[in-house]
Amino acid sequence: MAEPKEQLPEEVLALIFRHLPLRDRAAAAHVCRAWAAAATCSSMWHHTNISCHWELEGMLRSYVFACLDHVHDLRLDFEPSRKPSRSAAIELLTALAGRAPGLRSLCLKCHGEKPLFDAGRDVLGAVHAVCGAARELHHLDLRGLPFTLDDGLVLQAAHGCPELRSLFLDNRTLVGSVGPSSVLELLEACPRLRALGLHLASLSRAALEALAAPNRAPFVLLALRCECPEDARASPLPDEVWAAVRRRHPGLAVELELEPALPEESVTRILQPSVPVAALRLNLSGDTAGPVRFAARHYAKTLRELEVRAAASAALDEALEELAARCADLCEAHCFCVVRPSVLDAFRAHCPRLRSYTLKLKREPHPWRPTLVA
Question: Rounded mean pLDDT of 336-343?
Fold first, then answer.
């Protein structure tokens, strides 16, 4: 061990320790006082990623819990089907609810399979507790949770986290339990909210009118997933209301993800001309060429990303060529079916800002890798 006068400065040690796995950082904190100070300093924990593939026990548990007060931005990964991982995540979230007043951002991500018939009440209860305690929370991302989110959680976030800037509830679940009235209450309770992710059924005309209000802070992102049966039955959102939102927030970008469960008539109700669609992801069981042509004709000025998962067809190729010719600002184009050479030529010729694309001329082994444009 080096003599004290030869020790690296604390900020240098902290920079080194930041690149170590959590277990190694915990071990470093027990080497000497200088290393302990560096491994537990506030700046080390402001932006923290924790993967709960371990049990919170012994030296690691004491190290993590001693530093929770310093956490500002947390990304927490865990496997709900593994009891130790799940228990560690719940314990950590529960501790955060009582000991992390400075928490600004929380992103939860699940890996592996979700146990069958698992409602996730224990996990969602811990998230609920965090939302009730983290008054300064700015960003909450629940897209990685495989559980059904409900009105209670949204209302807790609305009234427990008035400083929210972004909230993402558009997770991959076949049941949508967040009602439009809860979203409207959220918008009224969180005036600084500027990014929101929802299932389509959670959005309403009243919510869009609230966004279009003259005193509303600038709104920049609305991400909509359209997958569950409730989405297919959702009331139409009139084009004139979208136009009013677009006038009030000229910088607004809408991301639309349409999944196979949607019938064709629902797709045509969702794709309104005035929606400022920046990203369009189509994974439909029916007609896909029609929505691509619609995007080409109405979203030419706003579309930056297109993703299509469909069966190959001459009609789809023609629609893709039309879209390439009209959408000059497109940055990404990914089509997960074989296309004819003229489709690839069209995107190369008409989309000078294209950064990456997946346009295969012949079938290849999956997963298909995108081509990056130099």
Answer: 97
